[in-house]
Specification:
The structure holds two protein chains of two kinds. Chain A is mostly helical. Chain A has 14 helices and no strands. In chain A, helix 1 packs across helix 14, helix 4 packs parallel to helix 8 and helix 9 runs antiparallel to helix 10. Chain B is mainly alpha-helical. Chain B folds into two domains: about 35 residues; about 220 residues, MetI-like (MetI-like fold, Orthogonal Bundle). The chains are: A mainly alpha, B mainly alpha.
């Protein structure tokens, strides 16, 4: 390795370290300041905490009703992601295997719909399902899940569509000849073969739904239905600039997804990069 | 390849496989979109009062609404700033990460982390930085522009939103660029080296042209995200100070749900849709033309 190459590699390390610090610093601030009192935070936000007291955490968990909003977020995310996956895979499979006018047209319509910003349909959404049909009052969480499946289906069908094309039809023929029905063939033969794509799609959908704010803030109006981002917003309004409570609350809100990232980072990074290439 | 004989059987499997998606897609997207178009031609004084036909008056009101124009111009400024800066930083990070350093995975993983967290929560985290941390650094080091509260200043508040958006998205674009950089063929690079091209030349004449497909994706994503920005806008500045950072999504939300003017709000939302569709469409069309084969 010559001197110039060494120098440029050194520069890479240097720059990456600087960016690393810039990118991770806000998380560092959240962690060190969540153990401090307001006085200590104002005095020096960078100092390490004098002692590890979890007092503020338990206070926040209680006042935020943390476990209720955590459960709501988990249920909404899990059910939506599961059904987006199953329904989209079924649809994409059928569209590839019977590419008639109707299915091709439907596919084109769904792909084109991906350009619609959520803001352009949220007002009619609230008007129809709120003021007209009252689904928002009657069953907000099921309605939210139904909407997520509907919104998520276009991208997921599109991604599955690309993958189903690469599966040879002979495998299905064999299974059909053995007397399996078409749905059985799909669930036993095709769906398992789609699992790498399913993982990618599920990861993208989890990141979207888990963190989504605008749609749930319009649909969920009662405290007991709130997801974590909405709860955080309410908490921030109540304890404006009361950092000794806000910072532990923020840390608690981001903790579940950070822990998931710690264990599944390889899948998440791969999912994101494959999701974008398609 | 599917060829059920009887019509009923065919209809049955069509319904079984595509029925749920069609139904839910219609509920969430198709019906609201068509109904939204209808709403823009109607008047309603409150969400509960009946609709009256109003012709084009909502569009006229929207075009005459100076707040809407202000928010649109601000959004365009935001789009230009973030699309350029996020793509540059994302590419630089990807280039550095793949430049042969050890710990490549470590850097990639940590630089992506901000993207795991939603804009709303990120905004609150950065509020602490802009309100508490930066002023405290400025105080200690005597740096005047850090000591000022950025979020209370009409110009700096805008750049605060830009900075947080860059911080959130650069890691995501980096991942996409890394996937593209890994696919730049080794033999082409070697040929360029043998021909005497230096690092800068190779980057400009070989790598960047081959990276156009990645840029098509990243520019599309950053464009669309920037036009639709809401969460960070809402939690970081709330549109303030003095309404100076209200971008178009927030303007639509305010018009519809705070002023209860569904018709005009929806007309403004459709103008946003038309702009986004036009610009992203043009972008994909023109950048596809720039693609080269290795």
């Amino acid at each position: 390795m010559n001197a110039r190459k060494k120098a440029s590699l050194l520069l890479s390390y240097l720059l990456l370290t600087v960016f690393f610090i810039l990118f991770v610093f806000p998380f560092f601030l959240m962690i060190v300041n969540s153990f401090k009192t307001n006085g200590q935070i104002l005095e020096n936000p960078f100092s390490l905490p004098a002692s590890l007291s979890f007092g503020h955490f338990s206070q926040v968990i209680e006042q935020m009703n943390f476990f209720v909003s955590f459960r709501n977020t988990v249920v909404i995310t899990f059910v939506s992601v599961l059904f987006i996956g199953i329904f989209s895979a079924m649809t994409a499979y059928y569209m590839v295997r019977r590419a008639d006018k109707f299915n091709n047209g439907l596919f084109a319509l769904m792909v084109a719909s991906m350009i619609i910003p959520f803001q352009s349909i949220m007002i009619p959404l609230i008007y129809i399902y709120g003021a007209k049909l009252h689904w928002i009052d009657a069953a907000p969480i099921p309605l939210l899940i139904v909407l997520y499946i509907g919104f998520g289906s276009a991208l997921s069908v599109f991604m599955y569509h690309g993958f189903v094309k690469s599966i040879p039809y002979e495998l299905e023929e064999a299974s059909l000849l053995d007397g399996c029905t078409r749905p059985q063939t799909f669930f036993r033969i095709v769906l398992p073969m789609l699992s790498p794509t399913s993982v990618t799609i599920a990861i993208l959908n989890v990141l979207w739904i888990w963190n989504d704010y605008l749609l749930p803030s319009l649909v969920l109006t009662e405290d007991r239905y709130f997801t974590m981002p909405i709860k955080m917003k309410v908490f921030n309004g109540t304890y404006m600039n009361d950092w000794e409570l806000l910072i532990p609350a923020l840390l608690l809100t981001i903790l579940p997804i950070l822990i998931a990232y710690l264990f599944g980072q390889r899948f998440i990074i791969r999912g994101v990069s494959q999701g974008a290439i398609k | 390849m599917i060829s059920e004989k009887s019509f009923l059987k065919r209809l049955g499997s069509q319904l079984f496989f595509t029925g749920p998606t069609i139904l839910l897609f219609a509920i969430a997207v198709l019906v609201p979109f068509v109904y939204g178009l209808y709403l823009t031609f109607t008047n309603m004084s409150s969400p509960l009062s009946p609709l009256e036909f109003a012709g084009l008056s909502n569009y006229r009101t929207a075009f005459a609404d100076s707040r809407f124009w202000d928010s649109l111009i601000l959004t365009v400024k935001f789009v230009v700033a973030t699309v350029i800066l996020i793509n540059i930083l994302g590419f630089v990070l990807a280039y550095l990460v793949t430049s042969g350093v050890k710990l490549q995975n470590f850097f990639r993983t940590s630089l992506f982390t901000p993207n795991l967290i939603g804009g709303l929560v990120l905004g609150y985290i950065w509020q602490f930085i802009f309100v508490q941390t930066l002023p405290s650094i400025g105080e200690k080091l005597g740096i005047e522009w850090l000591r000022l509260g950025w979020l209370g200043d009409e110009h700096l508040a805008f750049w605060a939103i830009v900075i947080v958006s860059i911080w959130q998205s650069a890691g995501y674009m980096m991942i996409i660029f890394v996937a593209g950089l890994v696919n730049v063929p080794k033999d082409v690079m070697e040929a360029a080296t043998i021909d005497g091209a230096n690092g800068w030349h190779k980057l400009r004449k070989v790598t960047l042209p081959l990276m156009v497909p990645s840029f098509v994706v990243t520019v599309f994503l950053t464009l669309k995200n920037a036009f639709m920005v809401y969460d960070i806008n809402y939690s970081l500045t709330g549109g303030g100070p003095y309404d100076s950072t209200t971008m178009v999504s927030m303007q639509v939300v305010k018009k519809a749900f705070i002023e209860n003017n569904y018709g005009v709000g929806q007309a403004e939302a459709f103008i946003l849709f038309a702009i986004v569709a036009l610009i992203t469409g043009l972008q994909v069309y023109f950048s596809k033309k720039m693609e080269v084969a290795a």
